[in-house]
Amino acid sequence: MASERKNDTFRIMVINPNVSVEMTDALKPIIKRLDFQDVEWTFYTSPREDPSPDSPDSEGPIDSINGPEDSAKTAWTCRDVCQHIQDYDAFLVACYSAHPLVGMIRKAIAEYEGTHRDQRRRFVTGIFEASVTTSMSLISAFNLTSVQYAREQVEDSFGIVTTGSAWKQELTNAVTEMLVGKGRDPPACFAGVATTGLSAIELHHTDPREVKRRISEATASLLRNSKTFVAAVCLGCAGMVGMDEAVREGCIAAYGESNGSRVRIVDGVLAGSRQLADHCRSGY
What segment(s) does the record annotate as region Disordered (predicted)? Predict the structure, then answer.
């Protein structure tokens, strides 16, 4: 899949785990605009048919991942990427979910590195994980209190604007498990999830004005329903890449021009791309 590489460049595979080539193509200009001179990007789209004859699922190809079951099915279908650990320095799973393919690749990396200790390290993340960790770095801080020499956590929070209603509870659970553990209440720093009612594929086939309106209204609803100041909003779908303007409009509608302009908008595709490039350079 990959040709011989130079020692001063890093190869990063961006994985679209659904079969929509249109969605993969939408990612390319956004990522390439980063203009990293030391990174070669490869874009992978899920095969339309499972590569193995013993597939446990005979359903048709998935062009829009609309829930956790779809995430699991597409992880199975895309598992062949684990055969290419030796060819790439990092892997970005471009599906905004707790996608099992991230863990599958991480396991394959650990196995490969266990027998190739003389090679540079390899990395993987998903756009969901990248957006959460980036948001936490943007909002998390401690401040002094009115009590002398005492401190407290700043009450800012982050939230997610995503597609269909099926993701509301699923992403809430995923953030909670990631930050505080399974079976716990959502952390105070999480403002929740607002949905547009559109699937990932519908984002590209619905009138752009309607898409913008729905994203803006979902964002405004997220901010207005939060008890704390929502200092960061995550774009909760790979198909929302480049749709920052609609989110900004919702922030300003909820908070006004001054405070609405303060909200950080986190694109998981860009956050993950930057994180992986930095990991490759740093060799953590």
Answer: 45-69
